[in-house]
Amino acid sequence: MLKSLHIENYALIQMTDVAFESDFVVITGETGAGKSIILGALGLLLGQRADLQALGDKDKKCVVEALFDISGLGLQHLFEEQELDYDDQLLVRRELLPSGKSRAFVNDTPVQLPVLKTLGEHIIDIHSQHQTITLTGSTFQTQILDNLSGDGKLLADYQHSYREYAALKRQLEHLTEQEAQSRKEQDYLRFLYDELCQAKLIDGEQEELEEEAGLLNNTESIKQAFEAVASLCDGEDDGVVARLVAAKGQLSRIASYQKDLPQLEERLNSSLIELRDILSEVSSIDDRLVFSPERQQMVNERLDMIYRLEKKHNVETVGALLVLQAEFGDRLEGMGSLADQIRQTMEQVDAAYKAMQQLGEQLTKARAKAATMLEQQVVPTLALLGMKESRLSVAITAAADYSLTGHDNVTFLFNANRGGELRELSKVASGGELSRLMLAIKSINCASQTTPMPTIIFDEIDTGVSGDISIAVGNMMRRMASTSQIIAITHLPQIAAKASQHFKVSKAVDSSSDRTVSQMRRLQHEERIVEIAVMLSSNPPTDAALQTARELIGM
Predict the structure, then answer these.
(1) pLDDT-above-90 percentage for the chain
(2) Per DSSP, what are the bridge partners of residue 55?
(3) For the sheet containing 455-459, what is the strand order?
(4) What is the DSSP letter of 49?
(5) Distance CA 15, CA 64 (A)
(6) Sequence-separated (6 or more) residues with CB below 8 Å from residue 343
(7) Could you tell me which residues come within 8 angstroms of residue 209 by beta carbon, excluding any fewer than 6 positions away?
(8) Looking at residues 203-227, what average pLDDT do you find?
């Protein structure tokens, strides 16, 4: 229930604080006094879009704050979903700054507007003559049956199942798209992988082949160099070996004349041995170095293939190509596992669909039961509201697809006249008839509930009602207040007289600011009598009107 409301600098309201009781509350006042401003302020708390034009004083911020008792409404899960601390006393505040920025708070915790909207749907139910048009919609009619069934857990279980099914279906669609894309890539990826496999690459072979290619491509030059080395070192007359032998002979001839000469001779002999060993190795390499055009072509072709693959894959080594080969193989294997994932997900989708379908069937049965109860109870209730010949039938048909609300299309068929054809509400019901039908349905819903319900606000929903019917409407609202807080904005004295708490909205010129302001205050017993008498007659009221007002309040 709404316990208190604080409004500051909103439209014509400078400052007001109102405390509400738990049962039947009425708000009255002349047209244009500012009753709709109260609803506008509450709308801000429900997450509606803020407008700078709502600022009374453009230099000050607007504040709307309300305290709700939400014990028994079972809203703990909503607070958990929004990561908010739960308390039976819910404080909601909305601030509109002169800069145009808006701020919202739940129990002093900053929140986004969608959070206010989500909470608002569960704490206040506002109905006006304009909003009654929603009664003609299939979605709203479905909600009416769900409320009457009283099995909120079944609907919550179904919606949870539907979300699971929808999530798995989206996952399956994503995997299927991946598989389709993979199929497009698979042939090319397989070609790349096979090409690298067929190359039979060996890590490090590029360096060896490049070295061998250098020899094969320069065999003739190398052999010529070897021949030149042999000629220079071992020529018959002027080769280095012959000269060293001659030099050694000269030292040997004079070795006896100085003690150091034998050592020099020995060193010269060592050089001669080393040079002959070098010449032997050069000759051996020269003998092994055989030019082969076939081998040269094979090595060059192998290197050309390696260079081409490296360029194609933008790498510089055979080792990097081998890494790519392994990656391509893993990806190809992963594409095979994607098919397994799709099969598994399809099985999960089928299981989720069956679970959702089963809960959907239970939901349909619960709605059919609620529809029967509504059909049986709404006719006598409408009769109390002056629509004695009215008939209502609820048609439930299977929808084309499952949705968050189930697998049902709900249609209210109605006619207010005897013998008239039952047709869709939007085609046969007037605005006044819709208002009374809405009131009747809300009354039946309240009577069927054993747990607390949100605050219900009726904004002049009684338009077009008068006389005894208005008394019946007032009595109906008073009965509804036994299970839900009812707040009614009304012009009818018969309805106002049935309330346990009566507020009057009026406007006057504030002398300090020289501007028109709206005020809302609670009327005491005698003030109520005068206000209802004024609504019955004129201002000031007649004695007869005052007497009638007392009688209405006492009824």
Answers:
(1) 33
(2) 10
(3) 124-128, 455-459, 486-489, 24-28, 501-510, 515-522
(4) P
(5) 10
(6) none
(7) 299, 302, 303, 306
(8) 76
DSSP at 110? E
In three-state form (DSSP H/G/I as H, E/B as E, the rest C), the secondary structure along 232-281 is: HHHCCCCCHHHHHHHHHHHHHHHHHHCCCHHHHHHHHHHHHHHHHHHHHH
Kindly tell me if the per-residue pLDDT of 153 is higher than 80: yes
Is pTM beyond 0.90 here? Answer: no
CA distance 126 to 487: 9
Q: Cα separation of 498 and 27, whole Å?
A: 12
Which residues share a beta bridge with 126? 457
Q: How far apart are the two ends of the chain, measured CA to CA in Å?
A: 26
Report the DSSP beta bridge partners of residue 8.
15, 63
Check if the beta carbon of residue 501 is closer than 8 Å to that of residue 21.
Answer: yes
> Which run of H or E residues covers position 27?
strand 24-28
Provide the pLDDT for residue 437: 87
Mean pLDDT of 129-146: 77
The DSSP secondary structure of 166-226, one letter per residue, reads HHHHHHHHHHHHHHHHHHHHHHHHHHHHHHHHHHT--TTHHHHHHHHHHHHTTHHHHHHHH
Half-sphere exposure of 494 (CA within 13 A, CB side): 14
Instruction: Give the C-alpha separation, 340 to 352, whole Å.
Output: 18
Phi, psi dihedral angles at 59 (to 5 degrees): -95, -5
- Residue 78 in tokens: 């909503």
Give the residue from 350, 351, 346, 363 showing the smallest Cα distance to 159.
363
Rg of the chain in Å (alpha carbons): 48
Q: Is 509 helix (H, G, I), strand (E, B) or coil?
A: strand
